[in-house]
Specification:
14 helices; alpha/beta
């Protein structure tokens, strides 16, 4: 049966059941401008990248060797095999690896000036983080050895209020700057970290689109990358202090969308991250949350669980088209760094942020604890937001 005929049959059925006016209300647009229909009867031939065997990635903020070693030993009790360590130097990282006898996979986020002097082949993966608001690449020509990756994180854009199309285009634009500056061999050194928001199906489609577009971009340099490493993590923007227990539900949903989209590594976030220091109780909940998803749902036993979904295929096609158009626009303007330094990226994010907040203020979008189901007595004595999060705070709850 032709698609037009199927659409007519379903439309007629819905109008009969709901009435014409209610039926019209089922059509809408996302904040990205993508049309949302009440049903999908077919989809164009769509791409699906095989889902990698995703792994849980725990995090440690390094302050001292003893403290980090204690945290690592605690994580081993949860059977955590992959750990990201932040603010560490090469010497300290080597000591930790030696102490744990190479039984775990370490991803050591080091400052670029800490790796310039390192000439040996380190038994761990050193990662250089690119600040997405820095208007130049990390100077790779100064770095000896190849056992490192450049990690490009979309979360700062996402937490400021960009939409998914902007997130994909801006983050790919940063990656492309490295290819332009250091050549096609750099492609294999780049990994990405994507912030997952609450728009479940869009976030699933986003990861597939991102993988596809990076594949196309690197193909242009004759070094196509089909298996770029993508780490996903919940964003901060939609988390609340009031009714904070809902944060656990939000992070679960965001982790699930990342897994279904096909991420390589998944992080979560403590439900009290906004107002509490790191503590055993919330860490226990966070780690067990990931372990339940991993070991009790059997979700990792199924490949490409979203393949065949007309809706996800439709979203991928539209997100890819619009993201790539924005990416090409940025390239025509001289590339990501030039576009960023002109102030255009900040202006575009601020425009979308204003639009997004308007939807919450009119209750066209709901955030429990902020504009719906608020309970002023629920956690009256909760500590205020941590000082380091107050700067440039674009959390929805603060408006």
């Amino acid at each position: 049966m032709k698609k037009d005929n199927i659409d007519k049959i379903w439309s007629k059925k819905l109008i009969k059941d709901l009435g014409k006016e209610r039926f019209k209300e089922l059509f809408s647009k996302s904040i990205e401008g993508i049309k949302i229909n009440p049903f999908y009867s077919s989809a164009k031939e769509s791409f699906f990248y095989p889902s990698p065997k995703w792994k849980i990635l725990a995090e440690i903020n390094h302050t001292s060797f003893k403290k980090s070693l204690n945290e690592i030993n605690n994580l081993r009790e949860y059977d955590m095999q992959n750990i990201a360590i932040f603010n560490i130097n090469i010497k300290e990282a080597r000591k930790l690896v030696s102490k744990t006898k190479n039984q775990m996979n370490f991803f050591c986020f080091v400052k670029d000036n800490k790796i310039y002097k390192s000439t040996d082949s380190n038994p761990f993966l050193a990662i250089l983080s690119h600040d997405c608001f820095d208007i130049k690449t990390i100077n790779l020509s100064k770095i000896n050895g190849k056992k490192f990756k450049i990690n490009i994180d979309s979360s700062p854009f996402k937490d400021l209020g960009c939409n998914i199309i902007q997130e994909v285009a801006f983050t790919l634009g940063m990656g492309n700057e490295y290819l332009n500056t250091y050549g096609k061999k750099t492609a294999s050194l780049i990994s990405f970290e994507l912030g997952q928001g609450g728009d479940y199906f869009f976030e699933i489609a986003k990861i597939q689109v991102f993988r596809r577009l990076w594949h196309l971009i690197t193909s242009h340099y004759d070094n196509e990358i089909t298996d770029v490493v993508i780490t996903a993590k919940p964003i901060v923007r939609n988390k609340t202090i009031k009714n904070y227990n809902n944060n656990l539900i939000r992070t679960t949903s965001e982790c699930m969308s990342a897994i279904l989209g096909g991420c390589d590594y998944i992080k979560s976030q403590a439900y009290d991250y906004l107002f509490n220091d790191k503590n055993d109780f919330s860490d226990n909940l966070m780690l067990k949350q990931l372990l339940i998803i991993k070991k009790e749902t059997n979700i990792d036993k199924v490949d490409n669980i979203c393949e065949g979904s007309y809706y996800v295929s439709y979203l991928k096609e539209n997100i890819m088209k619009e993201s790539f158009n924005l990416f090409k626009k940025i390239e025509k303007k001289g590339g990501f760094f030039k576009y960023l330094s002109s102030g255009a990226i900040i202006r575009e994010i601020e425009k979308n942020n204003k639009k997004d907040l308007g939807l919450y203020q009119t209750k066209n979008k709901i955030l429990v604890g902020y504009n719906a189901y608020t309970d002023e007595n629920f956690n009256k004595n909760t500590s205020i937001e941590k000082a380091n999060l107050l700067r440039n705070n674009f959390r929805i709850e603060t408006f």
